[in-house]
Amino acid sequence: MKARLILVTTALFFIISGCKFLHIDGFTGSTLLWESGANNYFNQEKANELKTPKEILITGEVEKDVIISLKNIPWHSVAVREGRMGGDTLNFEGAFRYDGYALCDILSSVKIDKKSKKDFYPPVDLYVEVYNKDGEFATFSWGEIFYSANMYQIIIAKNVTRVIPGKTGELWPLPKTSKIVAGTDRLTVRNISDPVKIVIKSLKGNFIVNRKPEKFYADLLELKGPDSLYAKLQKLPENLPVLSCESIYYGHGMGYKGYKTFSGVSLGEVMKPYYPDGEKFLREGLVCIEGVDGYRASFSLSELINRNDQQDPLLMFGSGKDKGYETFSLYASCDMFADRSVKGVNKITLY
Question: 3.40.640.10, 3.90.420.10, 3.40.50.1360, 3.30.43.10: which CATH number matches 221-350?
Fold first, then answer.
């Protein structure tokens, strides 16, 4: 009797413990179908399967190249309204729910070998380029994959379902093959088809790390491009509205940092007059936000100027008495963690 009890208890432990032991995971999207008029608006037709690769190559700044099988990776759902600019007009391509494999799950077990690890260990300067078989690529920062407050929003789609308008019943053309889907993008230019390879990289630059500078602030903020200086700011633009965010501030390493209010202007709105926003730049653009102490964080250009969730990172000025907040600083309001909120910001560079 005692042996049987131990056996049952052990079995229950493994079942409750979940996927770590049994490799079981739930699908985060609904698989039920609802007729028109039901309260669920995302499941009114059967999901259509896309032609999806069985595996994907991970290369770049890693211990060794690895091919990740997508077979046992759980699915997640992302709903998007797809559209691209054609001149001054938006070409609307439809509203869809995509089901597929999140980049954060695909990349979670990959062993990173960062080139900058000797003088700058945090992974906040990493980013990835996702390539398709035609050589086209889309850029994503490490932070928007792993630090985001809205997890699992970047997926490789396996299925697609139309989100059908109730009155018109309009049915948009469905894609045939898999694609990257970036759930927080306004213009869906990073949703490239047939992804086959992910390259992991870190920011390049003449960075000098000094974590305790005598002067932890910058008199001027430089906005730079690959080959030129776009602008020098002495203060925040006066034509932009001041936004405030109350935050339970939490660092990935140090945990709870207090209940704080951050006030500033949308960094994307500051950048828009200076930085190009064409389709290629929104798809491939990468931004480095750098502090006077050499701390830096990567952001994709799209997550700064092409968001659809109104979670714009804030550029702040003179926002506190602590060191690093005397002039320019950044609050990454889109993130769960504080690690991409940069103090003493002196330079923003488009790669």
Answer: 3.90.420.10
